[in-house]
Amino acid sequence: DSIRKMPVTIDLHKKYPTYEKIILAAGRLTREKNFPLAIRAMRRIVKAYPRALLVIAGSGPEKRAIIRAARRSDVAANIALEGSVPLATLVSYYKTADVYLLTSEYEGYGRTLIEAAAAGCPIVSTDVGAAEEIKGAYIVPVGDRKAIVDALVRQLALPRRAPQLPPLPSR
Fold this sequence. Notes:
The protein is an alpha/beta fold. The chain has helices at 2-5, 12-15, 35-48, 63-72, 87-96, 111-118, 145-156, and strands spanning 21-26, 52-57, 79-83, 99-102, 123-126, 138-140. 36% of the residues lie in helices and 16% in strands.
């Protein structure tokens, strides 16, 4: 409930105005989260949506490897590495992204899935943790880049949701 009530303080579409479609991936930068799979998927996403952006929020031991993978890819201009962000900022990101992407190989539960769902963000996730319990989420097999791309393309084709802006101050 607290996530639903948090106001939007940063709109990803305003932060990155040259991009039309924004895919958010967040979590600890560890091997099992498989962020390189998200980067590889962007190669195909950019063919369908040249002005798509993958925003990766998080920090961890695989940070350098993920930075290298992003820089080496032919879609480096379509990837933004945010580093660690506070929960209030992450909630704004969930609320203003076009889709949340989870590419994990396994999850005990999947806290970011629950946060994204609570914020009303559409979800594409590998079949891990609590993913199958989230109504309306696209669930794909672990490691299946084609299925991830297909689900992202379907989701990105839908009209963009309006972010939940804070109420205007009363006079």
